[in-house]
Write the structure tokens for this entry.
Amino acid sequence: MSEPLLELNDVSVSFDGFYALTDLSLKLYKGELKSIIGPNGAGKTTFLDVITGKVRPTKGSVTFKGKSLLGVTEQQISRDGIGRKFQTPRVFENLTVLRNLELSASPVKNAFSLLGSGLPQSSKDEVHRIMNYVGLAPFATVKAGSLSHGQKQWLAIASLVAQAPEVLLLDEPVAGLTDEETLRTAELIKSLAGDHTVVVIEHDMEFIRDLGFDVTVLHQGQVLTEGPLEKVKADPRVIEVYLGPPEQ
Amino acid sequence: MKIFQRLVPWILLAIALFILPAALDDFRLNLFGRYFSLAITALAIDLIWGYTGLLSLGQGIFFALGGYAVAMYLMLNTKSLAGGNGIPKFFENYGVDQLPFFWQPFWSPVFTLIALWVIPAVVAGLVGWLIFRNRIKGVYFSIITQAALMVFFHFFNGQQKLFDGTNGLKTSTSELFGQLVGSPDMQVWFYRLTVVLLPLAFLVCRYFTSGRFGDALIAIRDDESRLRFAGFNPVPFKTIVFLVAGALCGISGALYTVQSGIVSPQYMSISFSIEMVIWVAVGGRGTLVGPIIGATVVNYLRSLVSEALPEAWLFVQGALFIFVVVLMPDGIYGWITKGGFRTFLAAFGIAKPAKTYPKLDKEAVPVD
């Protein structure tokens, strides 16, 4: 197999002696689609924090396209092509939906170039395409703060897509969504497969099944097991720490 | 209606330029000139606080730096204020017979005109960059700016040999173009200059707050770390607006100094910098009209109250601030634009109450 796109090697993160990740090693190849599940406190979010530069690992290495990500700023990692959606939908509440997307879609991120020039037409078209796809076009001029929770989730996902990263890290993309919205979100994420490498963190097993990605189970900061969903679900260790015994 | 809205700024400008000077006596006109110059500072604070979320309690530094720059020029270039060896008289009191080196360039009017905004801008840019690159935010930023203010205050206050210390530099008795700066004729010209520069400051702020740069500022206010994950580095954005705000405060301080007749370390007092923030809160932050209203209304009230009951002003100011924060969180301008004025009139039976929420009512009007 070729070189992994993103590689974590023996990564540990300790917060004042408490280990959120312990010797976690994980490889992600170009175009790979992965779901990550695990009980609360398994280190799922910390795992994303390490990749996106928010948390610096206590030990171990993180490389993206062969370059170390340690000590690189969040904005540089984002520009290099790793995008992230947060657990709670974080949008810019006082900007309209359109402006939220346009800001993320901006190909240049430098302060002076933002002063002088407008958004290129190709980015504008892309923003409108994404906005139509997620059904937010009627709300283009509405401030993001007045959207419903589900709409904010979609706006957060749409902003991430507009950013056009190579690797998409989605932390609980369907938390608080209705079944129908969940289904549409699964479609949206599947449509990104191919060019993109996608990592989804979720608790919703239905959604994980809809996606059909390979599943990695995290437990106590380590990889417990990996594989297709059905195989993982049958694993007695996964049942014990996460899924619980099947209902009678 | 739309044409009318377009005309409003021009009408206001015309009133300020032609009607106010005719209607008011010299003393009142001079007061309005001061209010309008303070409005430039309010605009600057709105740019950094209302739009970008940086609550600076140290804008007095830049205000005073602009004031000192212009005062030093005036002191040097007035023969009647010069002592035996051709330098301002106050130096003699402290036994200084040689002009401090940094006074030298202020012989030049061109240098002074540039320095009065470039020096504050450079200081603001440096201080801001150091603070922002270390990711100091929120209340810690406010505390640091206030601490910086105290440093500057004590430096200017303590250095009699450099700046005449606590006495400050008096500009009203200095001369410009062969006229006394404090004379009514000169004051009218300073008033006109202020009325021209205030709209320019407004346009500068609009340039930075509209468009994509402005979007990024609002994004910084809403969720700065999220903006980093979108690939933007907030540090240059914050440094640029803080620098621009510093320059605007410098211009504002220079205009205020020539119209009030003195610059002193009191311009760097803690309370004055907090008052500046109050003007913005009262007028309405996050809008560019609000701070102008706020600075003018609060300072006009201050004059009125101080004339009637000299001791009462601080109480009135405190009450006003509490009133606005509790009852008009968007300030006077936000209250008017969001339909507050109509509910007020409706309470007296003059206007019909809004059928639904004012915002919905407005949106229900078909857009052509």
